[in-house]
Design a protein that fits this description.
This protein is of the alpha/beta class and 227 residues long. The protein contains 8 helices and 8 strands; from the N terminus they run βαβαβαβααββαβαβα. 36% of the residues lie in helices and 16% in strands. The longest helix is centred in the first third of the chain and has 18 residues. The two termini are 14 Å apart. Bound molecules: 2-phosphoglycolic acid (PGA).
Length: 227
């Protein structure tokens, strides 16, 4: 069965108490609505590193069908790299790692060389990179099977890309190389999620702002289940 991905990117948001509150509220929503969530939906949540363990435990405690991802990773392995978090250190908590988000490219100056190193580390730890591209010309390193198209103008602005254009970018990328999973991100919300998932080339979405509120997050999942 082809899966539909809903990947929540929390960015630098939430305290530990707020993470707990998100899960408590999610438990209630999920209990009420689990019958309207189809088996083809794959839910991935990407909290900050410091909250991965808590999210892992709360997800298990409340029996939520949530897998975890990291928002970034060290370009190095374990060792003397102060402040960095190696893929091997979180491999028991996450299955996915976002690489190359435009916020990191812009605010932290991440370049293609660094992003290729990060990709290699993630693959070495047997995790799945979610590789962000800003347009169809963004280079994609070897070994990437999951690509997220995230046009900068659409991130956090409430102005999503048109589904037709996102679908076209997916086609263009797939003409150039084999991509198993193509994701769209940028102002996804419960009202527009279905329009991205029904065009054929887009396998999932990566909402930021709308993933922070449990009610909106689960509404997106419910709506995605209808497609
Ligand atoms: P947004 O963020 O949904 O808040 O626009 C998307 C992203 O940056 O992944």
């Amino acid at each position: 069965m082809k899966k539909k991905y809903i990947i929540g990117n929390w960015k630098s948001n939430k305290t530990s108490a707020e993470v707990e509150e998100w899960f408590i509220q999610s438990k209630d929503v999920y209990e009420r609505e689990k019958n309207s969530i189809t088996d083809d939906i794959r839910i991935i949540l990407c909290p900050s590193f410091i909250h991965l363990k808590e999210a892992h435990e709360l997800s298990r405690k409340y029996n939520l069908p949530i897998r975890l991802g990291a928002q970034d990773i060290s370009p190095f392995g374990a060792g003397a790299y102060t402040g960095e978090i190696a893929a091997s250190q979180i491999a028991d908590l996450v299955e996915y790692v976002i690489i190359g988000h435009s916020e990191r490219r812009t605010f932290l100056g991440e370049n293609e060389t660094l992003l290729t190193q990060k990709t290699e580390q993630v693959l070495k730890a047997k995790l799945i990179p979610i590789y962000c591209i800003q347009d169809e010309k963004t280079p994609i390193p070897e070994g990437i099977a999951m690509v997220a198209y995230e046009p900068v103008f659409a991130i956090g602005t409430g102005q999503a890309e048109t589904p037709a254009k996102a679908n076209e970018i997916a086609q263009k990328v797939r003409q150039k190389r084999k991509v198993d999973t193509f994701i769209y991100g940028g102002s996804v919300n419960p009202d527009n999620i279905e329009s991205f998932l029904t065009l054929g080339e887009i396998d999932g979405v990566l909402p930021g702002g709308a993933s922070l509120t449990p009610a909106l997050f689960w509404e997106m999942i419910r709506n995605a289940s209808r497609t």
